[in-house]
UniProtKB/TrEMBL annotation:
Pathway: Cell wall biogenesis; peptidoglycan biosynthesis
Record Gene3D superfamilies: 2.60.40.3710, 2.60.40.3780, L,D-transpeptidase catalytic domain-like
Organism: Actinomadura hallensis
PROSITE patterns: LD_TPASE, PROKAR_LIPOPROTEIN
GO cellular component: extracellular region
Protein name: Lipoprotein-anchoring transpeptidase ErfK/SrfK
Active-site annotation: 328 (proton donor/acceptor), 346 (nucleophile)
Keywords tagged on the record: Acyltransferase, Cell shape, Cell wall biogenesis/degradation, Lipoprotein, Peptidoglycan synthesis, Transferase
Limits of the L,D-TPase catalytic domain: 244-370
GO molecular function, one term: peptidoglycan L,D-transpeptidase activity
Single GO biological process annotation from the record: peptidoglycan-protein cross-linking
Pfam family, one: Big_10
Keyword Cell wall biogenesis/degradation: yes
Length: 399
């Protein structure tokens, strides 16, 4: 299946961004200042940090606004990144009886920010502004891909969120704190780092079906370690479809498909013949990963002329592991389906059943198989549900 990339909505610096030498903060401090009175009057009713005209401000620094008299009424922060792109939206909180406001997130590197503050003292309101620029580091960190990544795609209740970065992450804890998952129907979940540049989110229990899950990486300005700062924010939305679960007993040669708890169909099949480990269908909780029609299957690690070599084109193939396991059409084994296991490890079903199964399949649907002594490994494809949730979250940098 030719799977397109999910379209990410990026809300940070669009350009590659330049350098914090050796991690030094020299020239990068945030100094306070009075800003500019919009009315042109003199006086210091409001102090804004960073000061007006400040440069090389650390992207992970804090903006602070203080009122010497009266109370702050409103504070806004607007940012512009390279080539006029919008910078990360900076929010904040009032404190000390609205005499102080502090930002609560990081800023886009290489951007210009303008802080506008209104303070009221008695019957008089004054507006003060301060503009400054943030540091351009030599290295940045961006998100290269989010899976699922097909716009408008509905996915199954077991679907993970797989985030791949464009470089290894030095400070995994700092980056993980910037990753937020917001489902319509809340459920506990955790991130697990599976590679220096890849982290995966899995829930404790399956997602509730028929909902949206929003992913937001507040990455812009995060100190990712090794001199790199997050270049920009990223967003994606998952659409969780119906709860589709396939359960199959390899010894009994049948699987049952349910949708939202209701039985749709029981399908006779033929699984791996079990003569070798390679030809043994894995038991355990699998996720449906992708589908293709047709798919060419070849014997792994073998070339033409080798014993056991095969090359077969199959229709309506649904992948459920990285070790070559599919549910697919197998008209040549219809006589064995429901009574014997004769395949090289795949689940062989009739052409009519394969077409039906292919059409309803969603990536992230559950297929749970029993009946063999070969368990699918948790890192074989998307076998993540093979780990208990306690085991899963041990892979978090924030455990």
């Amino acid at each position: 299946m030719n799977v397109g990339r999910f379209r990410l909505v990026l809300t940070g610096a669009a350009a590659a961004v330049a350098v914090l030498v050796g991690g030094s903060a020299a020239g990068c401090s945030i100094g306070g200042g009075t800003g500019r009175l919009a009315s042109g009057e003199s006086g210091e009713p409001v102090t804004i940090t960073p000061a007006d005209g400040a440069a090389q401000v650390r992207p992970d620094g804090r903006i602070e606004v203080r009122a010497s008299d009266g109370r702050l009424q409103k504070v806004t922060v607007q940012g512009v990144a390279g080539q006029g792109a919008a910078a990360a939206t900076v929010t904040g909180q009032f404190g000390d009886g609205r005499k102080v406001w502090r930002s609560d997130r990081t800023m886009t590197p290489g951007a210009t920010y303008t802080v506008t503050a209104q303070a009221r003292d008695g019957g008089e309101t004054r507006t003060v502004t301060s503009s400054f620029t943030t540091l351009k580091p030599s290295k940045t960190l961006s998100i290269a891909d989010v899976t699922p990544n097909v716009e408008g795609e509905k996915v199954g209740v077991g679907m993970p969120i797989i985030v791949t970065f464009d470089a290894p992450v030095a400070d995994k804890a700092a980056v993980e704190r910037a990753l937020h998952v917001d489902p319509d129907k809340p459920v506990e979940g955790a991130w697990r780092w599976v590679a220096p540049d890849k982290v995966i989110y899995r829930t404790k229990t399956y997602w509730e079906p028929h909902q949206k899950v929003r992913f937001h990486a507040r990455l812009a300005g995060v100190d990712a370690g090794g001199g790199a700062y997050g270049a920009e924010d990223a967003r994606a939305t998952l659409v969780i479809g119906p709860e589709q679960i396939t359960t199959g007993d390899i010894r009994k040669h049948r699987m049952t498909v349910t949708r939202d708890g209701k039985k749709l169909r029981t399908i006779p099949f033929s699984a791996g013949n079990g003569q070798t480990r390679e030809y043994t269908t894995t038991s355990g909780v699998h996720l449906l990963m992708e589908k293709g029609n047709p798919v060419t299957m070849t014997a792994p690690g073998r070339k033409p002329g080798d014993p056991g070599y095969y090359k077969t084109v199959v229709d309506h193939a649904v992948r459920f592991s990285n070790s070559g396991e599919y549910v697919h059409s197998a008209p040549w084994s219809v006589g064995s389906q429901g009574s014997a296991n004769v395949s090289h490890g795949c689940i062989n079903i009739s052409p009519a059943n394969a077409r039906w199964y292919y059409d309803i399949m969603q990536r992230g649907d559950i297929i749970e198989l029993t009946g063999t002594d070969r368990q699918v490994e948790w890192d074989n494809g998307w076998g993540y549900w093979q780990l208990s949730f306690d085991e899963w979250r041990k892979g978090s940098a924030l455990r």
